[in-house]
Amino acid sequence: MSxxxxxxxxxxxxxNTPMVLQDVSxxxxxxxxxxxxxxxxxxxxxxxxxxxxxxxxxxxxISLNDQNIAxxxxxxxRSQYVxxxxxxxxxxxxxxxxxxxxxxxxxxxxxxxxKEKEVALSLLEKVGLSKEEANRRVLQLxxxxxxRVAIARALxxxxxxxxxxxxxxxxxxxxxxxxxxxxxxxAKEGKCVIIVTHSPDVAKNADFTYELKAAASSKS
Length: 220
Prior knowledge:
alpha/beta; Rossmann fold; 4-stranded antiparallel beta sheet; 9 strands
C-alpha cells in the first residue's frame, strides 16, 4: 500500500513562467528506499519541496495515506510526519550534536516516554556517533559526522518518511557507503526513504529509481 502518492502533480513558480514539473505521478511505499534522479533543471529539489510540504503544487494532488496533504496543517506535516535531511545539513553550529536533536524534538511538540536527551543520545548512537561525539559542537565534527547528526535529527520525532536532498554529495566514498547503510537500516525498520541524488552509486543501492524529465516549456 502506498504511503505517499502523487497524482498528475505540476508546479510553476508564477503563472507566466514555464512548468518546473508537469503531470508527475509517483507512488512511495513504507519499507523501501527510492532514488529521485534526473539532469539539472529536471525539478528534483522542487519535488522534494513539494513532498515535504514546503511548497504547494500548482496542479494535481499529493496524498499521505489517501489524505490530500493540502488538508493537513503544514507545520504539523513537516514536524511530525516527514523528516527532511538537507544537502548542507542545516544544523545549528553553536549547539552540540545532541542539542540539535533535542531542539528538533521540542519543536515537534510530540511526547516521549523517556527524557528527550536520552532519546537523542540513543538516536545518535544508532547512526554511529559516540556519546563523546554527541556532546561536541557541530563545528567540531567532520562532514560525515554532521550528516549523521542530520539523520538523527530527522528521526527525532519518529516520522514515517525520510526525505534527503543529496545526502552523500559532500562525502567520501567510504562515508557515503556508511550513510547508505543507515538508510537501508531505516527502510528495514519500515521507514519510507526518498533520496534526491546525482550519484549512480546511491541510485544503484535504492530499491526503486524514478527519473525526472524536464517539463515542457509550454506556458499554458
